[in-house]
TrEMBL record:
Similarity remark: Belongs to the xylose isomerase family.
Organism for this UniProt entry: Flavihumibacter petaseus NBRC 106054
UniProt keyword annotation of Magnesium present: yes
Binding residue positions for Mg(2+) 1: E235, E271, D299, D342
EC category name: isomerase
Name assigned to this protein: Xylose isomerase
Any one biological process term the GO annotation gives: D-xylose metabolic process
Gene Ontology CC: cytoplasm
HAMAP family named among the record's database cross-references: Xylose_isom_A
Keywords, sorted A to Z: Carbohydrate metabolism, Cytoplasm, Isomerase, Magnesium, Metal-binding, Xylose metabolism
Cofactor: binding details: Binds 2 magnesium ions per subunit.
Binding site for Mg(2+) 2: E271, H274, D310, D312
Matches recorded under NCBIfam families: PRK05474.1 (NF003998), xylose_isom_A (TIGR02630)
């Protein structure tokens, strides 16, 4: 492995300096050992680096060539280049104090079209990653396979109408699961980047969804038979690049998992920008998953209010994240996962140091949001206002209704006897001000 300061020279380990600090390379809120609601911030937040955006992204877009010309991408041989990239990644994560990372198979090393050669490359880099993990203490939060970038997946992977393509997807998932298991990965993620349709004119939707369910079942069975004890996550997204994806949002995914007998092994990985693309708030998607007991993990980012697509910007909206942390705390935290920064520095952020500013800002914002959310839960009347709003169901006829002992005609008679109900305020503005007060 390379010298620990090969790629980010002049940047020391990022430390917590408190809210009075004006050092842009220091944490102002993220004191990893600070105890909040019975756990340290490090235990609550379980931050992870997204290997793909931070070390594979080049800043290119459909209208322009790459702008992120980082030295770890300049080596010709794919395995040597992958090792250099991994050296840079672990140097970066160690200096930030990130406890976890996540990857797709093709992030770790470039793939070609030969299944056996791809497996050989990934196995070589898995062994190299194991050395880095042992030396640094950084762990793998989850692994996954990229089943959407290669042209063979233009019509989907597990939902492709061509079985030969589905078989290639199976080969990739097997290799990615082998790597995840070998590295002690705590979870495994399925994101159906192209599992959907562009037109119903040429699509048998029922058959495609049945194929997806079968694919998830055989993948689960393989992992379990090879010692994997973690959770499998599904990451919802409504569209882009497909017109409609089968993992549209949290509610859709939960219904799919229930229909196909997968609830016991699978939970959800919620992404902020995917939630907003589905026409929901991030908080809504978290609440749906939490109410079902399936809030596994989150991908942290944000979109641009003027762009209706997945811009994957680093999170900095303290109000949005405070409301999100209220839901996460009341749900008891993540079920196996953590907070993965599935976000990329902007095209014109061209310095390696920009990677640090982006992650420091995101980590500080989440830490501040968690601290504020805990204070709201512990020191305000937030929970009391919500519980009082539903107090009519805590006794009498309301309790009987929840217990299932009232018939429709009973409801009619109760309404006729009681007369018009009093108007009760939802106190929305008060609660919005309350959140701002604790921020």
């Amino acid at each position: 492995m390379s010298n620990s300061s090969q790629y980010f020279k002049g940047i020391e380990k990022i430390k917590f300096e408190g809210i009075q600090s004006d050092n842009p390379l220091a944490y102002r809120w993220y004191d990893e050992q600070r105890v909040v609601a019975g756990k340290t911030l490090k235990e609550h937040l379980r931050f992870a680096c997204a290997y793909w955006h931070s070390f594979c992204g080049n800043g290119g877009d459909p209208f322009g060539e790459p702008t992120h010309l980082f030295s770890w991408n300049e080596i010709a041989d794919p395995v040597d280049r992958a090792k250099a990239k991994m050296d840079a990644a672990f140097e970066f994560m160690s200096k930030l104090g990130l406890p976890f990372y996540c990857f797709h198979d093709v992030d770790v090393v470039d793939y070609g079209n030969d299944v056996a050669e791809n497996e050989r490359r990934l196995q070589a880099l898995t062994a190299y990653a194991k050395q880095h993990q042992d030396a640094s203490g950084i762990q793998l939060l989850w692994g996954t396979a990229n089943l959407f970038s290669h042209r063979r997946y233009m019509n989907g992977a597990a939902t492709n109408p061509d079985f030969a393509v589905l078989a290639h997807a199976g080969a990739q998932v097997k290799a990615a699961m082998d790597a995840t298991i070998a590295l002690g990965g705590q979870n495994y993620v399925f994101w159906g980047g192209r599992e959907g349709y562009m037109s119903l004119l040429n699509t048998n939707m029922k058959r495609e969804q049945e194929h997806l369910a079968r694919f998830l079942q055989v993948s689960r069975d393989y992992a379990r038979s090879n010692g994997f004890k973690g959770k499998f996550f599904i990451e919802p997204k409504p569209c882009e690049p497909t017109k409609h994806q089968y993992d549209y949002d949290s509610a859709t995914v939960i219904g799919f998992l229930r229909q196909h007998g997968l609830l016991e092994d699978f939970s959800l990985n919620i992404e902020v920008n995917h939630a907003t693309l589905a026409g929901h708030t991030f908080q809504h998607e978290l609440q749906v998953a939490a109410d079902a007991g399936l809030l596994g993990s989150i991908d942290a980012n944000r979109g641009d209010y003027q762009n209706g697509w997945d811009t994957d910007q680093f999170p900095n909206n303290i109000n949005e994240l405070t409301e999100a942390m209220l839901i996460i705390l009341e749900a008891g935290g993540f079920k196996g996962g953590g907070i993965n920064f599935d976000a990329k520095i902007r095209r014109n952020s061209t310095d390696p140091q920009d990677l640090f500013h982006a992650h420091i800002g995101g980590m500080d914002t989440f830490a501040r949001a968690l601290i504020a959310a805990d204070a709201i839960l512990q020191q305000s009347d937030y929970k009391t206002i919500r519980s009082n709003r539903y107090a009519s169901f805590d006794n009498g006829n309301g309790k009987a209704f929840e217990a299932g002992t009232l018939k429709l005609e009973d409801l009619r008679n109760i309404a006729a006897a009681a007369g018009e109900p009093a108007v009760a305020s939802g106190r929305q503005e008060y609660l919005e001000n309350l959140v701002n007060r604790f921020i």
